[in-house]
Amino acid sequence: RKEYVDLYVNYVFNESIRKPFEDFMQGFLRGCPARKWKMFLPVELQTVLQGHTKFDWHLLEKNVMYGQYKKLDRTIRNFWTVFHKLPEEKKKKFLAFLSGSDRIPGYGLEHFKFWIVDPQEENPDQVFPSASTCRRILFLPR
């Protein structure tokens, strides 16, 4: 019985997926040569590929740059007051809205910067906040 179980487990976890895995690995290594990845420990490689999943939201606030706003403007103070009261999941959704990902890139939050800009609309009450994910700009009407 032990031999049967060992052979079955080997088939399910190794043999049955060998061809699809080899195809995946070949494609992955074409874009990301293995010699470049060997310098990373597994946990470091995971961070490089997936980004950080733990956040210091106050550090994020500290790293923001402002366009047509000052840090002490009422709109900005109200924004951060509301933001810090949000549950963690909503904060991650904001991050995805702003940057296209709910994670911080591997280089870390201390280097993650974004802009909050006043779009200077004639009637700001009729304009929703929007974002430029490529440039990490939040257009926040007054």
Give the CATH topology of the largest domain.
Hect, E3 ligase catalytic fold
Please list the strands of the largest sheet in the order they lie side by side.
1-2-4-3
Overall CATH class of the largest domain: Alpha Beta
Mean pLDDT: 90
> How are helices and strands ordered from N to C?
HHHHHEHHEEE
List low-confidence stretches: none
Number-wise, the strands total: 4
Helix content: 40-55%
The CATH homologous superfamily of the largest domain corresponds to Hect, E3 ligase catalytic domain
So what's the overall shape?
elongated
Pfam families: HECT
EC number: 2.3.2.26
Domain HECT: 1-142
GO biological process, one term: protein polyubiquitination
Explain how this protein is built.
The chain is of the alpha/beta class and 142 residues long. It folds into two domains: 1-50, no CATH class; 57-139, Hect, E3 ligase catalytic fold. It is 49% helix and 8% strand. The chain contains seven helices and four strands; from the N terminus they run αααααβααβββ. Strands 1-2-4-3 form a four-stranded mixed beta sheet, covered by helices on one side. It is elongated and about 75 Å long. The protein starts with a helix and ends with a strand.
Topology, please?
Layout: H1 2-13, H2 18-31, H3 34-37, H4 42-50, H5 57-62, E1 65-67, H6 74-85, H7 88-99, E2 115-117, E3 130-132, E4 137-139
Parallel strand pairs: 1-2, 2-4
Antiparallel strand pairs: 3-4
Task: Sum up the structure in keywords.
HECT-type E3 ubiquitin transferase; EC 2.3.2.26; Hect, E3 ligase catalytic fold; 8% strand; four-stranded mixed sheet; E3A/B/C-like; 142 residues; ligase; alpha/beta; transferase
